[in-house]
Amino acid sequence: MERYKKLAESLNVNVNYLLSEDDAFIADVEDKYGRRGARQAQELLAEVTGLFAGGEMADEDMREMVDAIQEAYLIAKKNNKKYTPKKYRKDE
């Protein structure tokens, strides 16, 4: 993401202009969930893209499918909080 930011500054454009939808998704996930979350999201996108490789699905339909899977991933990450045993919790 830092490379994109530097490049955007050099070209005097918004960083989102340089990102594909998938790149923007990965960057958003990394901001919210760190490198591990970004790696998981990249793996998910690779698997989804592989599922549709060589198929007869229209590009628009495939994009909608990928968008829905990305949205489901973000909802799952938000809802699945890491369990911390009571003795390690800092708020108590």
Short description:
This protein is mostly helical and 92 residues long. Helix content is 73%, strand content 0%.
Topology:
Layout: H1 2-11, H2 15-18, H3 21-52, H4 59-79
Question: What would you say this structure looks like, in words?
Answer:
- It is a single chain.
- Helix content is 73%, strand content 0%.
- With 92 residues, the chain is mainly alpha-helical.
- The protein has one domain.
- The longest helix is centred in the middle third of the chain and has 32 residues, at 21-52.
- The mean pLDDT is 78.
Query: Main sheet, how many strands, which sense, barrel?
Result: none
Strand residue percentage? under 5%
Determine the mean pLDDT. 78
Separate helix tally: 4
* CA(first)-CA(last) distance: 36 Å
Q: What is the radius of gyration?
A: 17 Å
Helix coverage percent of residues? over 70%
Element string (H = helix, E = strand):
HHHH
Shape: flat
Question: SS-based structural class?
Answer: mainly alpha
Number of strands: 0
**Low-pLDDT residue spans:** none
Number of domains: 1
Oligomer: single chain
List keywords for this structure.
mainly alpha; 92 residues; flat
